[in-house]
Amino acid sequence: MHAKSTPNYLAGYPIALAEQVQRLIEQGLLTNMLLQKYPHAHAVRSDKALYDYVLEAKGMYLRNAGQLSKVAFDGKLHVIHHALGTHTNISRIQGTKLRAKREIRIAELFKEMPLKFLRMIVVHELAHIKEREHNKAFYQLCQHMEPDYHQLEFDLRAYLTYLEATGQPLWSAASVDIGSPLNK
Ligand SMILES: [Zn+2]
After folding, report:
1. SS (H, E, C) 19-80
2. How far apart (Å, rounded) are the C-alpha atoms in residues 23 and 20?
3. How open is the CA angle 102-137-124, to the nearest 5 degrees?
4. Which regions of the chain are under pLDDT 50?
5. What's the CA-to-centroid distance between 183 and ligand 1, angstroms?
6. How far, in Å, from the CA of 49 to the mean position of ligand 1?
7. Axis crossing angle, helix 149-166 with helix 115-130, rounded to the nearest 10
8. How far apart are CA 132 and CA 116, in angstroms?
């Protein structure tokens, strides 16, 4: 018999590091560490706000990478190991032109997270416009857009591990810092 498998969000990291996160969760120490580093939830609460946020980042780094036809939070998207968000690239012939329809969907879970975590996943999905695989060029592009990319992904995965174990979110709409210039 097998135990019900749960996603291992830290599978890509050294075992010692993953175990350290487990210990911090068991000792109840991870929550304070995360809340100190990321005290507030972001204010990107709607698909429209998400679209604007993604377009702003795209305009800064990937201006010429084609149009995005849709950007949305997706409640059906399950956050699993390699699918924190999705992007699709549907090519079809329109008249004589090949049109690429690009969509970015972000798991709804990201609605109630710090801006930095949302930024990490947005950068990840934007980078896929140029690089399909999770290869060296892909991660270089991620880091170009967000220098803290690797630390943010690790912190996010630590949080997801905590959330999987406890079911208790650390941030909510009520913890939005409306005074922050980042949360315009
Ligand atoms: Zn990916």
Report:
1. HHHHHHHHCCCHHHHHHHHCCCECCCCCHHHHHHHHHHHHHHHCCCCCCEEEEEEECCCCCE
2. 5
3. 45
4. 1-4, 81-82, 183-184
5. 26
6. 22
7. 120
8. 23
Q: From the CA of 92, how far away is ligand 1's center (Å)?
A: 23
Single-letter amino acid code for the residue at 6: T
**β-bridge mates for residue 90, sequence order:** 101
CA of 17 to the centre of ligand 1 (A): 22
**23 CA to centre of ligand 1 in angstroms:** 28
Q: Considering the entire predicted model, what is its pTM?
A: 0.84
Q: Letter for the amino acid at 78? A: H
Q: How far apart are CA 67 and CA 88, in angstroms?
A: 12
Q: Give the residue carrying structure tokens 């996160």.
A: 21
- According to the model, what pLDDT value does residue 2 have? 46
**C-alpha of residue 87 to centroid of ligand 1, in Å:** 8
Ligand 1 centroid from CA 124, angstroms: 6
